């Protein structure tokens, strides 16, 4: 515990204590928007099909345009990109609320949902990129860079636990519109604060010509394998969501579904925070293989789970393997791509996760209808098995490739 605290204290020394707080609250709207839009449209239209279409277009917008925003951030810097996307997203989210409450037809609602998803500020990927840039320009070692990924992964997990919980609470005590309205406010305030934070100077961007100069340090097979692994991790999440919903409904306690899934997220966040203290001898290749092997072993019992408390136990145990895989995947991405394209690559990785989850959720939902909860959980187990196969079959460099001289130590960015 002391080692974990000391390692993350070094990360906070680089970023300042305010940046992780701001970035956490700026991430919450991402976790709130899809779930909140589905609840809102289902409530106002009375149609689950319409709600699914709007939620689907929101996810599609994020998947397709996320890497585009990342590329723009690499080229022009994070500040203008986040300021613009946060403003557009806040307006689009507010328009979605107004349209749903006003009884807007499915097609225009879906179009607004697509704009909402396309304009989601990439706070998670950009925060990783910014913190890694701060670590490199300060001449920090690999242990600190690893701790950056650990801390950012934990903040992601916490946002995806508390975001849906806030949506559910708002829907319970008031109306889903309150949750989405709150998301619009959060992205406007904290997205802007993230963009204006002085550490944004560490990621000022570079023109296309400058980004193309110098030796290309890339491992395309590794990058594509990691993106595939993240898409499969998303499929694990999607299969679990559908299976948990199906089983709790069968047991007559559908309200427990969110709590079960939240338990997995809490455990994942705690384990993710501890990953930063692992010694360097546990390299990324070993971590990838151990994490994916653990995910497969811990997911198999889902196929035989038929009651509530065993479901809690199995899903909570599975959470211990999620954060290590996600943290390792983003760390591998950071290691394998050019620094000038890091924001784009991080955004592509995050989009892969969202895409895998959305597709698996649709597929496993149908399987749950036909074959019960085990049908949905089979999607999660199959995806975990493919994750392990990718980890075992992909060559991972033992150390960071060197593209040139080590970055010189520079004065810290004012915070």
What is the rounded Rg? Answer: 21 Å
SSE run: HHHHHHHHHHHHHHH
Number of strands: 0
Morphology: globular
What is the rounded distance between the termini?
Answer: 27 Å
Compute the average pLDDT. 86
Relative helix content: over 70%
- What's the CATH class label of the largest domain? Mainly Alpha
Tell me the domain tally: 2
In terms of DSSP E residues, the strand content is: under 5%
- Uncertain runs: 210-217, 403-415
Q: Architecture of the largest domain, according to CATH?
A: Up-down Bundle
What is the CATH superfamily classification of the largest domain? MFS general substrate transporter like domains
Content-based structural category: mainly alpha
Main pleated-sheet profile: none
- CATH domain topology of the largest domain: Growth Hormone, Chain: A
Count of helical regions: 15
Question: Please, could you describe this protein's structure?
Answer:
The chain is mostly helical and 415 residues long. It has two domains: 1-206, Growth Hormone, Chain: A, CATH 1.20.1250; 217-396, Growth Hormone, Chain: A (Up-down Bundle), CATH 1.20.1250.20. It has helices spanning 2-15, 18-45, 48-76, 78-101, 106-118, 123-137, 142-173, 176-196, 208-212, 220-250, 256-275, 284-299, 308-336, 342-371, 373-393. The model is unreliable at 210-217 and 403-415 (pLDDT under 50).
